[in-house]
Specification:
The chain is mainly alpha-helical and 174 residues long. Helix 1 packs parallel to helix 5 and helix 3 runs antiparallel to helix 5. The chain starts with 17 loop residues before the first helix and ends in a 5-residue tail after the last helix. It contains 5 helices and no strands. The chain has one domain: dinb family like domain (Four Helix Bundle (Hemerythrin (Met), subunit A)).
Length: 174
Amino acid sequence: MTISRGNHRTEPSTTAGEREMLDGWLDYHRATLAWKCEGLSDEQLRATPLRPSALSLMGLVRHMAEVERYWFREVFLDEDLPDLYSTREHRDGDFEFGDADTWAEAEQVWHEEVGLARRAAAGRPLDAVSDAASHHRGEVFSLRWIYTHMIEEYARHNGHADLLREHIDGVTGE
């Protein structure tokens, strides 16, 4: 699975159909997060410069891996999957990591989850609903709702990534 990076992000079409547009915006935001992490050391990717917040770029990538997994596979496909980082007892596990946790592992897991999310949605109509009620709300969700939520989730966290990157090395951008 490839996520386009840096200034090579593909702007979503302004005239595409709904599915192409949703895919385009979601991929654009995935590429934006990858771009915000580019060229930094493991130490910089782990940095939490916005104290008292525990936000880090590595934590955001781990969080988004969990979000991709949760909405597309656990909710939409009703897959029973083991926890990645966070658990009911340790809800912030995506943002809390030890010395053995690496950027390479976090990035690989995120890429894998994005690929699996794409496969979960492939060929399914936007008005398809989740196979079962979600685990935390007891509701079913349309694929359209999940796409829209994922775009919102990435957009919000890309704002966090902007602030983190600027505090880490002064790099700014959209």
